[in-house]
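Design review, sub-item: ligand-bound model
Attendees: FS, YL, KQ
YL presented the inputs for the flavin-adenine dinucleotide complex:
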Amino acid sequence: MTSTIFDYVVVGGGLAGLVLATRLSEDSETNVLVIEAGEDQSSDPRVNIPGMWPSLIRTESAWDFKTVPQEGLKGRDIGFPVGRLLGGSSALNGLAFSATSKANIDAWERLGNPGWGWESFLRSMKKAYTPASEGIEATGPIQLSVPEADTEWQSAWMKTLDTLGFSTSSDPFDGEFSGALVVPDSIHPLTKQRSYAGNAYLEPARSRPNLTIWTKTEADKIIFNKSNGVVATGVQVVKDGETKVVEARKEVIVTAGTINSPRLLELSGIGDAKLLQSLGIDVVIDNPNVGENLQNHPLCTLSFQVRDEPGFDTIDKLARQDGNAIAAAMEAYANKKGPFSRSGSNLAAQLPTPGLETTEDVSKLRAQLQTEVLNSHNEPFKSFTQFHESFVNSILASPKEATGCYVAIPGFAGSNGDGWMAPPPPGQENYFTVAVLLAHPLSRGSVHLTRSSRDSSALSIDPKYLTHPLDVEIMARHLQFVEKIATTEPLASHLKLDGKRSPSAPPAGSFADLNVAKDYLHKTAVGAHHFTGTCSMMPKELGGVVDAQLRVYGCRNLRVCDASIIPITPRTNPQATVYAVAEHAAQIIRTGS
Ligand SMILES: Cc1cc2nc3c(=O)[nH]c(=O)nc-3n(C[C@H](O)[C@H](O)[C@H](O)COP(=O)(O)OP(=O)(O)OC[C@H]3O[C@@H](n4cnc5c(N)ncnc54)[C@H](O)[C@@H]3O)c2cc1C
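KQ shared the predicted structure:
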């Protein structure tokens, strides 16, 4: 074994890892090593050309994971990717860049995380991005753009939501937004290339002599000195087939993501002592919270056949790999236009719970809560479950808060029920899809080792999708509302409402019966790629793995700073929140507060 020494060893060169490494190495006296399991694909067109990201899924560039069979999904197991390349999931994600709500972030602080309220969080988020339009003062490395409306779908979507009473005017980044919106993409407006942790943060910092990046290097476990309390001193890695130990003079910072960070802690002896002992792993710190509180948005899609009118193009031909469509898209991209120049999932809405007309409607929903919820933010709480339910209770009937997030896609979108994207159904029909995500699921699960091995098959990933009864009630109402949107003008006129729909969807109008909507959810919902929570930031007695400074309980010189520390999941696509978490973490580490 050979040994090398750095001030900070950052494990995981993904979204958060590269933000931290870039910020920490701004101090030329501090030297930083980043360990990344995947390769540097910074010149790969599948990373850089926005519309090509799906081609990286199920390749060497992604960890290929699968949940255990999900009771709430009629026993289906759901496959999903996580980025395994420099930039992590930010190098292959779907590019949508949305802010979460003030209510969400303020709840993190009330949970026992001083310094994490909305105002300071917003300052950290603004360090990460430069907005697509004027009005927000932020000049961070991630560049945003809003695609040109080159079809009529955008206007039809926005007008339809307007007809339904949802304003389109306020700022979607102000923490208090609900309504229809065009979500910006993390795409550079001039180059029309993906803007991500790799090119926006790392690239300008790469030549710093105090910043070292090791790709194709996998962390095996964290090394500790236990002579005077537990202190993290380094990381054992496998690089070029050789096992090495790298030492951290100051800290080991784990940024391996929501699935891999708890896995690394457990492999290193931090976790539930009973579980670790049963797997033959030496226990360093007994904390049964490691790997718990796994959260993700359940997602359900409903596609409608379109009328194929001029100006209402869809991406179906492209998804069917039609040679002419691909050539046309490439030609358009050469002029920085067309479907490859954007995410394709920009039309969106973040909406309150539909169908709550009477106090009885609200009471019916509240009856699904399993704890005695708090009536005010000042009341003491007994458990994270009670706190979490109280948070959802506080927003579920508010017309100003969103419990469902909608993404409208001009084209077919869906899976065969196994989580992996499916092509459009056979035939020549084209589609318009509305995907709905449950913003704040109460169903929470876990990720744990089943063997002492780095193999992905040695993990039990159990998000427990749609097992909380309130999740099913709220999401089914949003699914009903998708039909309402589709049958409202002007959108209705552009869809063939008596035509083809998603292959497993019941006939038009069936969701009027809430039980039919619930059944469709259980049969077809999958998980979004928005995992959070497995090394949650909260007091240990409530379920925490890290404190408000992101220090691992029971250990010195070890932090976790990625999506896994998020205790209550953001209401929509998480990358903006994870960039903010990483910026916030960098400030804490550099200044101590
Ligand atoms: C397919 C997909 C689509 C998505 N679409 C969107 C979207 O449109 N909008 C949005 O907001 N969010 C989206 N997300 C989510 C978003 O990208 C993630 O929430 C975010 O990247 C999480 O950041 P992270 O730093 O926690 O983890 P990651 O960015 O995943 O980084 C973790 C890194 O750690 C590395 N690593 C793990 N274990 C080890 C080890 N033992 N040794 C060395 N390295 C290791 C991994 O290879 C990876 O590079 C998407 C995610 C995916 C997977």
